[in-house]
Amino acid sequence: MSLEERLNKAEALMQKPSFRQNKGLGNEVGYYIFDYPAEQELFVRERVEYIRKKNEQSGDEYRVVVFDLYDIIIEILKDKGYLEKCYDFERKKGFERITKSVGNMLRITAKDSLIVNYIKERTPEKAIVFLVGIGKCYPILRSHTVLNNLHQVIDNVPVVMFYPGKYDGQELVLFSEIKDDNYYRAFKLVD
């Protein structure tokens, strides 16, 4: 099945009441991964924006809310007045140190992660959450970390992570090359 066919199937699935209400998954919370070849990133971005706009114009009671994880990181750094400081810190201390420092500042692995709180505060009751931009965040942010922390605070709406890599139902492989930790709680949205 082509990527376009998979996206069409995903869009149709998201229209179903059982998907929107997180029903039919046993007692599991509706967390999904839509994996795709990283080289198709721009095509997927365009399609995600198309779905969001279509939903916005439809008057549908369920809102498609798109969170670009990279944009969230940049916004938080700007709001805290750290973005310019990060540039200087990276020049002086190197990429590895700034990656670790930004991760610590965002409390990425903590229950009160700034990214998770950002998403939680901006997610309406009747929504479908799209997470995008995970590839742009590497290595600061890892997909399994976001999903694990988000899973603890958002359990009433379906969450779909658009993932530039491979997901086989257990293992996440970013860009089809970088092995992330295993993640068992998400369902593959479309095979």
Describe this structure in words.
The protein has one domain (3-8, 31-188). Helix content is 46%, strand content 20%. The chain contains nine helices and seven strands, in the order H-H-E-H-E-H-H-H-H-E-H-H-E-E-E-E. Strands 1, 2, 3, 4, 5, 6 and 7 form a seven-stranded mixed β-sheet that branches. Strand 5 and strand 6 form a beta hairpin. It starts with a helix and ends with a strand.
Quick rundown:
This protein is of the alpha/beta class. Helices cover 46% and strands 20% of the residues.
Task: Give the topology, please.
Layout (H helix, E strand, L loop, with lengths): L2 H12 L2 H4 L10 E6 L4 H18 L4 E6 H11 L3 H11 L1 H11 L8 H8 L5 E6 L1 H4 L5 H9 L7 E9 L3 E4 L3 E5 L4 E2 L3
Parallel strand pairs: 1-4, 1-7, 2-3, 3-4
Antiparallel strand pairs: 4-5, 5-6
Features:
191 residues, alpha/beta, seven-stranded mixed beta sheet, 46% helix, globular
User: Span between N and C termini?
Assistant: 8 Å
Question: Helical percent range?
Answer: 40-55%
**Total helical segments:** 9
Low-confidence stretches: none
Protein name: DUF1788 domain-containing protein
InterPro entries: BrxB
Pfam families: BrxB
